[in-house]
């Protein structure tokens, strides 16, 4: 789903608000989530899941094409854990 599709879905459900206002609200929410993650704070959205930043350790690996050893530095990655209710919805769809 694209951001504009999200705005369209929300505007259809709310009806009384302008799409421009809903788009601005979605943008503010996404900016706040991004800012919290940039500060390495955990973001939890009840009924959906939680986002957190994890640091991957540096490692050494071999380039399969050249055979040369490469050092990969430590880096930060985004980790998402889905909520129990979202997991149940996804499992029900499979069955």
Automatic annotation (TrEMBL):
<dbReference type="GO" id="GO:0030527">
    <property type="term" value="F:structural constituent of chromatin"/>
</dbReference>
<keyword id="KW-0226">DNA condensation</keyword>
<protein>
    <submittedName>
        <fullName>Histone family protein DNA-binding protein</fullName>
    </submittedName>
</protein>
<dbReference type="GO" id="GO:0003677">
    <property type="term" value="F:DNA binding"/>
</dbReference>
<dbReference type="GO" id="GO:0030261">
    <property type="term" value="P:chromosome condensation"/>
</dbReference>
<keyword id="KW-0238">DNA-binding</keyword>
<dbReference type="GO" id="GO:0005829">
    <property type="term" value="C:cytosol"/>
</dbReference>
<dbReference type="InterPro" id="IPR000119">
    <property type="entry name" value="Hist_DNA-bd"/>
</dbReference>
<dbReference type="InterPro" id="IPR010992">
    <property type="entry name" value="IHF-like_DNA-bd_dom_sf"/>
</dbReference>
<comment type="similarity">
    <text>Belongs to the bacterial histone-like protein family.</text>
</comment>
<dbReference type="Pfam" id="PF00216">
    <property type="entry name" value="Bac_DNA_binding"/>
</dbReference>
């Amino acid at each position: 789903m694209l951001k504009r599709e999200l705005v369209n879905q929300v505007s259809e459900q709310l009806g009384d608000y302008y799409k421009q206002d809903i788009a601005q609200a979605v943008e503010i929410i996404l900016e706040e989530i991004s800012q919290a993650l940039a500060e390495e704070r955990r973001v939890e959205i009840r009924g959906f899941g939680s986002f957190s930043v994890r640091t991957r350790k540096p490692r050494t690996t071999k380039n399969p094409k050249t055979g040369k050893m490469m050092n990969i530095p430590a880096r930060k990655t985004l980790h998402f854990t889905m909520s129990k209710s979202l997991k149940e919805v996804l499992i029900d769809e499979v069955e």
